[in-house]
Amino acid sequence: MAGRHALMTGLVAIVGLFYLSSVNGLTCLFCDRAVNITDCLTQKASCKDNDEQCFLDKTILPDLSSVFSAGCRSQQVCKLIASAVGKRDSVACAQCCSDPINNATLIPCNGYLCNQNPQPAGSTCGVCDRVSDPKDCSVDQQCQPNEVCKVNTLFTGGVLKYELGCELKTICDKILKEYKGTHTTVSTGRRADHGDLTLCSACCDTLSCNKEKCSEVIKTQTCHNSTICG
Ligand SMILES: *[C@@H]1O[C@H](CO)[C@@H](O)[C@H](O)[C@H]1NC(C)=O
Ligand SMILES: *[C@@H]1O[C@H](CO)[C@@H](O)[C@H](O)[C@H]1NC(C)=O
Ligand SMILES: *[C@@H]1O[C@H](CO)[C@@H](O)[C@H](O)[C@H]1NC(C)=O
Q1: Counting ligands in written order, which one lies closest to the CA of residue 38?
Q2: Which stretches of the chain are assigned E, i.e. beta strand?
Q3: Spacing, Cα 147 to ligand 3 middle (Å)
Q4: Could you count the other beta carbons within 10 Å of the beta carbon of residue 12?
Q5: Which of 37, 102, 121, 167 is the most exposed, having the fewest neighbouring CB atoms within 10 Å of its CB?
Q6: Burial class (CB in 10 A: 0-12, 13-18, 19+), 8
Q7: In-domain check, residue 119
Q8: Mean pLDDT taken over the chain
Q9: DSSP-based three-state secondary structure for 71
């Protein structure tokens, strides 16, 4: 029992190390003992190098409920753990993958491991106030079912800033209608409440899709209600 505990502790320590990953390579869902796989949709990890894969672990707790952990893990650790599953009865499933992100849902491959098929109730979107680059937004939030992701470009204090968050689908459809009407950047020169200039607004409805430049997001924006935006 003690030996097994030491093995587990060792594995957890190794696994913990591989959570700390960044720069280039695979993008994976990240979560630590989430009750529902959909809770893993709010954070992503970028794997360190080509040696790392995305993983999903499903662990059974003493009360028979299960939790999910996800992130990047070295291929060697993936193999090691795969051979240990079944011997460790608390781990119901531990799998790794290195497939590219699903284009339609933008959910990394480890969201679909262990027979999971996460269906976000609302869009999961970056939520940040005035970042210099939308990619810098590291906060994600699940929006309401009637909302999607939005990114605004603001001219504030002499510089361009990006504002990311959730927006009602109906408002997004109006933004799209306006864009289609002009085929230029939307809302040019519109003065926002706080006195800043909103140069562009755009919406999208895949996982954290608003972490891109507004001028790019608007090009692929889709219509939700054809009565509004045709
Ligand atoms: C997980 O969350 C989703 C969305 O909130 C919900 O539809 C689903 O029933 C939940 N699954 C479990 C096992 O609780
Ligand atoms: C998915 O996106 C990648 C990169 O944008 C592209 O090369 C690939 O053709 C797309 N696959 C599908 C099935 O659309
Ligand atoms: C679409 O928009 C129209 C006009 O705002 C509204 O009357 C209608 O209920 C909307 N349809 C749906 C399915 O939301």
Answers
A1: 1
A2: 27-29, 31-34, 44-46, 52-60, 66-74, 91-97, 124-126, 128-131, 140-142, 147-156, 159-168, 190-191, 197-204
A3: 15
A4: 11
A5: 121
A6: middle
A7: no
A8: 84
A9: strand
Q: Which tens digits make up the pLDDT trace of 32-63? A: 999 999 889 878 899 988 899 999 999 999 89
Of all protein residues, the one whose alpha carbon is nearest to atom 11 of ligand 1 is: 36
* Pairing mode of beta strands 140-142, 124-126: antiparallel
148 in the same domain as 105: no
Type of residue at 28: C
End-to-end CA distance of the chain: 65
- Return the best residue to mutate from 31, 38, 67 for the ligand 1 pocket (most ligand atoms within 8 A of CB): 38
Domain contains 53: yes
| Long-range contacts, stretch 186-194, CB < 8 angstroms, 24+ apart | 186/218, 192/154
**CA 35 / ligand 2 centre spacing (Å):** 31
Q: 77 lies in which domain range?
A: 2-112
pLDDT digits (tens, 9 = 90+) for 59-76: 999 898 999 999 999 999
Nearest to 151 by CA among 211, 223, 229, 222: 211
Averaged over 97-125, what is the pLDDT? 87
Q: What is the pTM of this model?
A: 0.60
Ligand 1 atom 7, closest CA? 121
